[in-house]
Design a protein that fits this description.
The chain is α+β, with helices and mostly antiparallel strands and 542 residues long. The chain has 3 domains: 2-162, Beta-Lactamase (2-Layer Sandwich); 165-331, Beta-Lactamase, CATH 3.30.450; 415-542, Heat Shock Protein 90 (2-Layer Sandwich). The chain contains 15 helices and 16 strands. The chain has helices spanning 2-12, 17-32, 59-65, 73-81, 136-180, 185-200, 227-233, 244-251, 268-274, 308-374, 378-406, 409-413, 416-431, 447-468, 507-516; strands at residues 34-42, 49-55, 85-87, 109-116, 119-129, 202-210, 216-224, 237-239, 255-257, 279-286, 289-299, 434-440, 472-480, 483-490, 520-525, 531-538. Strand 1 and strand 2 form a beta hairpin.
Length: 542
Amino acid sequence: MRELIDASIALNSELSLDSLLQKTVETAASLTGARYAALGVIDESGGALERFVTTGIDAEQRKTIGDLPRGRGILGVLIREARPLRLTHLGDDPRSIGFPPGHPPMDSFLGVPVMLRGVAYGNLYLTEKEGGDFTDDDEELIGLLAAQAAVAIENARLYESATRWSRQLEILHETVRSIVDETDVARLLTLVCERLRGLIRARLVLGILPTESGDALRVIAADGEDAILTAKLIGHEFRQNRTKVGRVLERQQSARIDSLLDDPDVDQSETRSLGARTGLYVPLVARGRALGVIAVHDKDSPSGRFTDGDLRVAEIFAGRTAVALALSERVARDTVRRVVAAQEEERRRLALELHDETGQALTSILLGLKAIGAAETKEDAGRAEAEVRALVVQALQDVRALAVELRPSALDDFGLGSAVERLAQTFGERSGIRTTVETHLEERLRPEVETTLYRVVQEALSNVVKHAAAEHVSIVITQRGAGVAATVDDDGAGFDESTVRADALGLTGMRERLDLVGGTLEIESAPGRGTTVAAQVPLASG
């Protein structure tokens, strides 16, 4: 009794469920003199074991035996009937199904349910009592120990549940903060898959969205234990009308599947390719519209089954993810709208220049050619020819200037530094403004970054000509650590930032260009003190 009391105190001070279960079986063996003891924890279905903790069997024997029991034979009797069972010869009971190869022989048997308030948490199994059969005293002692263990197990489960839920809330808040600002769909779903898999201890999590045609579903992001399988799944397509994923998307209802083999909606060929046994499927729904599905497979437990708590966590993640996806769609549509508007504005400006300058130059050339034909003397024809040549040269320069504005070849061939130097040279020649350039670049930048910074410099120089009345312009492009900065500084008239509209100077267009590559724009100006335009772009993509 003293050993039982000491054991009860020790059990109730233990908050780790695994340690508690191990201590319980060791105490049961010690109290009864059993050579072997085990504790089987019943799963949520109430019909099988999700854990099986033993003492008396060494690591080599456990390896030889193979898989742990799942709750059949005599163990299944205890699960179903939930009352003590004593047997003199275990193998003589007609309900016994024997032992697997390599299992040590076991004869005498005592099984006692671990129950609290009518709920069975599991069963204690004892075999091979030293000196004979298990007695009434053994059954009473183990009954008392089982009652104490039930209380301790419930406390440990509550503690683990509270700790796990607290951690889940913390990770959920961290994830929500991370995805709020993320507009790239693949990165967003990858982050969600990684965090969700860690939270509910799953083998594989997939982020799945409909294809553009709408007749299939494509894996956009994946996170799993098997890195090779995970990489192969990216881009994999499911047939929308013949898979569980498609059904969940269509019905906009979550599904928890304890056995994928038994679900009629599951495409078994897909299940085999994933190597999955169980699943959670949660739709991504925003404002009544299904945007995609989060699919989760195989919990890290003997049964592989997910709980209602796992489903609730997945649904919380899915709700936040759907909102973020809807926001990213809106941002993408707005970005496309702004890009199209900018392109149309650029086309309008080029059309005006072609009409007003190039068109007029070509008209003048035609008139000059007529003058050559109508010349009465060689001297008149020579003067008319010289005028036509001058017009052709000017028109050619204007067309080249337009081509450079559209897309300078130096940007593609030699990079940002050379392209800006050529731009500055042309700008200085045409405007008469003294222009200096400094570039400090260690390597070629990403094409979209080079184009963006070139356009920002180009727009800033255009503003200098139109508004600044400057005598000198300085352009500095510098690579600093993880970013590159482009600064255009003039000594012109400047302006009052509080009274000038950003769109009047093209600043809105600059900022939108920079936003697309994760960059920022700063403007400093004051009347009579010139203007500084500074753009900063990160080197890394994203």
